[in-house]
Amino acid sequence: MNTASQQKLHQSRSIERLIEGVATSDGAGVSLTRVLTGKLQRRLDPFLMLDAFGSDDPDDYIAGFPDHPHRGFETITYMLAGRMRHRDSAGHEGLLQNGGVQWMTAGRGAIHSEIPEQEDGTMEGFQLWLNLPAKNKMAAPWYKDFPSESIPEYVTPEDVTVRVIAGNSNGVAGAMSREVTEPLYLDIHMPAGSTFATALPATHNAFIYVYRGAVKVGDMLVESKRMGILGNTPDADGVMLTAPHDARLILVAGKPLNEPIVQYGPFVMNTQEEIHQALEDYRNGRLA
Ligand code: FE
Q: Is the whole-model pTM more than 0.90?
């Protein structure tokens, strides 16, 4: 655990728009909230999807996600609570649990399953989809598990705890970094009355999602289970948050790719032809 003083911002971004997630079901019948939907893919480029899951009812999660394919992007699963077993066609296997992260680059193709290894208790976390640049969409698949203790954390003088999953915040480098999209992914725990600031390049698309309590960005209150899209104010050099009560949230930012996005279910490519190719490869057993 590090301590880090917070850099002073010249100007904070503000909330451009509040988003309430859509309740849905995916996999073999897992209840989840789709926060970042297809409609927001352009606005939040390079991020394609954010699902939030959280339930203490096993019926909501026990079925898990049996074998399914992906091509063209990366999946980042952050497990706040629970245990999930991952297996994929490249021979990777891992147990994702309490505070851990799994980063999977589907690249040209991976078939994987994500199955709960618990019969009761709470399962809570997020799955974020990060797009790959056109030149890397057909790269070899890659996968890494980050157990909770391997994720860099720092505490500010105001007792804000920040877990740096990806990117760099207040001088602390995260568990992962990526060229091209330069993703920043923070899990921020704020005690009541605290403030927190971190730098963000003005051109990066960015959002917060509050999963406990509420936070304010300027005058705008972002309540629990709400996403706040942060405006790309040209003069803003970061974001400043205040917590009226204890709050927990994720902050996600990345450099837009500005490339065509064509999605068909678990395949995200640049053209319709590439989608047809992905489907054909999957049907013929050539995807993975
Ligand atoms: Fe998947």
A: yes
